[in-house]
Amino acid sequence: MRLTLVVLLLALSQLCLAQPQFKGKWKPIFNGKNLKGWDVKIRGYALNENFGNTFRVVDGKMQVNYEAYTDFKEQFGHIFYKKPYSYYIVAAEYRFIGQQAPKGPDWAFRNSGIMVHGQPAATMGKDQDFPISIEVQLLGQDVNIKAPRTTANLCTPGTHVEMNGKLFTPHCTNSKSKTYYGDEWVRVEVMVLGDSIIKHIVNGDTVLTYQKPQIGGGTVSGFDPAVKKDGQMLTSGTISLQSESHPVEFRKVEVMDLEKYYRKKK
């Protein structure tokens, strides 16, 4: 009898801790034809000045390319979906292709990212390098290198999060994903529930979880001080994809909006 009660209590505790099972619909936010609905911001250039056709559509895929670059010059770029979200899951299917741009930083080899809860593109400074946001870092590995390299890591340009109930301030933190080599397609989903919880999911496996995204810290430059209000919780924001000097393709970018679910729940 006692053993049965213990088993029942354990089962109930797991049920209470489980995340809700959402039945929403995926909405493509990249139409496979053009960049309609997106804003481009590249460091050193005005809003929507798409230098060198860095962001473009090729064979139905959104491509980040550097054919016009003779020197990357830390011209980090981002392409922002114009509509902000608060409670949602965003998914992107990506792969790295080709060679890194000339003089791209070593750490940016096979490196891109999905930025969530970010500032609007129009509020970025002309020379700002990264949007104030939560970055889900996308990494790949060369087939000739055997060292493991996780993807869907956490980076925090101008932000902090909490882990295990405490403020967590390191800039980048590795997930527990496996390593993806060569030009393999990888699906990354990010569940973002307002200012409560964020989960990184790779090919169906949850690889990182944290809470309470908020503005704070460094690792971002060229920003308007009026935008960087340290300590402010991030309850909503933009979704953007990175240009960090290595060519990358996205064959699918989609969102499941959970706002109505949470409004109904409240």
Considering the chains and any ligands shown, give keywords for the structure.
10-stranded antiparallel β-sheet; mainly beta; globular; disordered N terminus; single chain; 266 residues
How would you characterize the overall build of this protein?
- Strands 1, 3, 4, 6, 10, 11, 13, 14, 15 and 17 form a 10-stranded antiparallel sheet that branches.
- Strand 10 (159-163) and strand 11 (166-168) form a beta hairpin.
- The longest helix has 16 residues, at 2-17.
- It contains 2 helices and 17 strands.
- Mean pLDDT is 92; it is low at 1-20.
- The chain is globular, with a radius of gyration of 19 Å.
- By secondary structure, the protein is mainly β.
- It starts with a helix and ends with a helix.
Which helices and strands appear, and what pairs or packs with what?
Blueprint (H helix, E strand, L loop, with lengths): L1 H16 L9 E2 L9 E5 L12 E4 L2 E4 L12 E9 L1 E10 L14 E8 L15 E6 L13 E3 L3 E5 L2 E3 L3 E2 L12 E8 L3 E6 L2 E11 L21 E7 L4 E10 L1 H7 L1
Antiparallel strand pairs: 1-17, 2-5, 3-4, 4-17, 5-16, 6-13, 6-17, 7-8, 7-16, 8-9, 9-12, 10-11, 10-15, 13-14, 14-15
